[in-house]
Amino acid sequence: MATLKLKKPATPGKTPTGGLRAPVRGAGSAPRKRPTLAEAQAQRAEREARYQEQLRQRFGDKPPAAFKRRDEAGAFDAPPRKRPAPPPAPPAGRSGNSAFEGRRERRPPEPPRTPRAREAQHEPQARPEQPGSMRLSKRMSELGIASRREADEWIAKGWVRVDDQVVSELGSRVMPGQRITVDAKAKFQQAQRVTVLLNKPVGYVSGQAEDGYEPAVVLVTPQNQWRDDRSGIRFLREHLRSLAPAGRLDIDSVGLLVLTQDGRIAKQLIGEDSEIEKEYLVRVQTAEGGRLPDDKLALLRHGLELDGEPLRPAQVEWVNEDQLRFVLKEGKKRQIRRMCEAVGLKVLGLKRVRIGGVMLGDLPPGQWRYLRLDERFG
């Protein structure tokens, strides 16, 4: 009978073929080396620094007084729970079924609340309005500090003070005599908003695209910026955000069109109480081919109605044989064209050359420039 002999490897940890032996179960599970006192203090200081940084990110420089650190005594102590009172004993003569004894009476489920009802539950009670008070955002708009939408945004951010007290609640009301100031952040944000002056050509609409025609804002590109623009403002893509027309020009009209990010300027130009003059040069033609009679020219100045409302007085005068100069303080839809039709004039061309104290000047058609700091509409 043959005997099989096994030969142990000469080197411990290696197989006879030279490969490494599989690790013994439990190898590498020796206890870790304990840190020295200096190492433990350094680790503790690092943990404390991370913890303080988390506190600053969550609460700012001053954590609330009721906040407790994790390592403070009582930080995780829960208030003692009150044990419910034992159920009353069953009346005499009734069998005490333990499965049903002590069962609480079920209440009918409450009807689901609407989102408005849930919001009203958490809304603070409305304060009584003082006689003569007005909304803070409206008062800021009246003072020319900001538009009402802009004012609401600043109030929500805590950038508005009334008599040196921060007001952050939307809908707050103030008295006309109270002093209103805004934070430097609000002034900086407002200073970054731009106003663009564009010489609109024929074929572009003032606002949203309609009937296949493009809005005039598509012309505000670096390539179309007037090379004689002396505003000192460098074009940025952010200047196109929320850039809206302040006043309109018909698709067949040309001339000065204002596009702005500043709500104050928009209110100044198209607000209900706006007193800013708009000047137009209008090329006209009578049906008979002669000159317009003086009585009809007087009607253009004052006495016409549009949509049942009387028009405000206007300045109208002849510039040459076929061109009139209009100066208006209002801007109803297609107002000048409809005024001319009412007295028997056909409009051949219309160009806006001035808005307030800002002139169209030598700005070429289809090009634009920024409003300079020294220019004012009012």
Question: Can you describe what's shown?
Answer:
This protein is of the alpha+beta class. Among the domains are: 134-191, RNA-binding S4 domain (Structural Genomics Hypothetical 15.5 Kd Protein In mrcA-pckA Intergenic Region, Chain A, Roll), CATH 3.10.290.10; 193-271 and 358-378, Pseudouridine synthase I, catalytic domain, N-terminal subdomain (Alpha-Beta Plaits, 2-Layer Sandwich); 277-355, 2-Layer Sandwich (Alpha-Beta Plaits). Helices cover 21% and strands 18% of the residues. The protein has 8 helices and 16 strands. The protein has helices at 37-59, 115-122, 136-142, 148-157, 184-191, 263-270, 294-301, 335-342; strands at 134-135, 160-162, 165-166, 173-174, 180-182, 195-200, 244-245, 254-260, 278-286, 305-306, 309-310, 315-320, 323-328, 345-355, 358-359, 368-370. The strands form 4 sheets. Strands 6, 7, 8, 9, 12, 13, 14, 15 and 16 form a 9-stranded mixed beta sheet that branches. Strands 3-2-5 form a 3-stranded antiparallel beta sheet. Strands 1-4 form a two-stranded antiparallel ribbon. β10 (305-306) and β11 form a beta hairpin. The longest helix is centred in the N-terminal third of the chain and has 23 residues, at 37-59.
